[in-house]
# Entry
Amino acid sequence: MAFSPAFLVTAVASLATLTSPPQATLTTMIGPTAVLGRLLVPGHGVSIAETSKVWTGDDPNKPTSKFQVRGVLGFGVGRPIAGEVTRVAAGGKRFTFRVVGDVTYGSGGVWSEMLPAGKTWARSSSLRLKPYQLSEQSVDIFEPATLHRVLTTRRTATPGQIVRGVLTTRYSGVVTTKSLCAVSLACREAFGKSDVRVSWWIWLNGRGQIARLFTKWVRPKDSAGGVLGGGAEANTYYSGWGSRVVVKIPPAHQVAKVG
# Structure
């Protein structure tokens, strides 16, 4: 994807990330939670490539929204603090979002339509994303406690899985949002007090880094309770863990406040 000139991403992927060592089991390798903690350091980040969909009712083949997401997340101490992604909706509309700290900038689609001539980025009181929300995932794997809680519910382990040329082991399981929200702020913000079963699949390379994450949850229809039913799924590939990533605030002369 093409980023604006003001957006500096220097991604230097080491040869080690392209050629994984022989696989180890989850119990014998360095814990993935510890690996994640070591990767969440300032000036570095990860690239994401993702597809997702959300549906209402009983038919997941009739999504109410569908996105492709491509971009990067930049880390601070222990968490993502910045990022930029481009989302492409099912109809082809493109939206680019850049988050730096607590400020979100938008471009494309309705955001560009509201901009005065000569401006590139929109700021709005209604546009407030946190870095992890640049991904459509239901599970925020950038919270080490969340990743740990998810992995404690694993039911299967399948070695020898290839993810974009990298040898991985696939783990899977089911976690309830009641359990997940006990440790995850992102879960509480997304699900509130709802108790939903989230099925998950995580592919880990030999270094304990996440190569892919697939999640899916379904909320059954409940006419008596007024629940329409529906669900969501997201399939995310991660690459370039630890690459140099710098996301800059757009120049002031490119930004306009709208809405």
